[in-house]
Design a protein that fits this description.
By secondary structure, this protein is an alpha+beta fold. The protein has two domains: about 120 residues, D-amino Acid Aminotransferase, Chain A, domain 1, CATH 3.30.470; about 160 residues, D-amino Acid Aminotransferase, Chain A, domain 2. It is built from seven helices and 16 strands. The protein is globular.
Length: about 300
Amino acid sequence: MASVPFDQLEGEIWFNGEFVPWKDAKVHVLTHGLHYASAVFEGERAYGGEIFKLTEHTERLHTSADILGFKIPYSVAEIDQACVDLLARQGFEDAYVRPIAWRGSEMMGVSAQTNKINLAIAIWQWPSYFKPEERMKGIRLDMAEYRRPDPMTAPSRSKAAGLYMICTLSKHRAEERGYADAMMLDWRGRVAEATGANVFFVKDGKIHTPTPDCFLDGITRRTVIGLAKKRGYEVIERAIMPEELEGFEQCFLTGTAAEVTPVSEIGPYSFTVGEIAQNLVTDYMAEVQPKKAAAE
């Protein structure tokens, strides 16, 4: 059965302070954010009616906007409340939450200093990023052609729309070749991340993950590092070269959309879905569930 196009979903979208019908949440074709990627966004998930680490995501949205040189005209608290209210109005318990801020259409050109800064929030039901039947068997990754750029050439600490252009290209190419996603190196040739998720490896009971010096230090990434340390696993953040992949035993991805997803293959390298990856899948899913108040 064909899926419903996103512009035809039911419900409402929070748009510049108002709840508007989903189909009416539109921008002009000459919007600066469309032409020049002057937009920042967040990806969040609600579990059991609560948005996981909502304020942390909203604070990062503000930080991303600051890096791109504009100020969102709504406070962190106002955005948090809008997300909570919209989730209730949509009537979802488990859902994906997408706030996005962008420069409008008042000026068209590279310079758009006076353009209005818009903010919208959409919430929809979105299952696991990868097919459930593939996820716990371990997904297969291609090696991406494109690389994460030098931080001196792109604002890599922001969750900016423009940074995802090479991710889309790489993921499309991987899917065309029968893979679920792609592994990206950075401009130095070091292992960086997947197209929309951070990556971890396991060897001799220790967890290794690339230092996020030119790609996003994900909120899920930090959460999983905390969960791993809580179990007593040693987590080593360091530069990882692609030839090291041959010596790793396990691999998994982390991200709001991906959650914790084991990897069985990256190009010519194979991994097992082992105990550490399985434990962190379980621990993360327990962590994101709303914490019920203890009975008195």
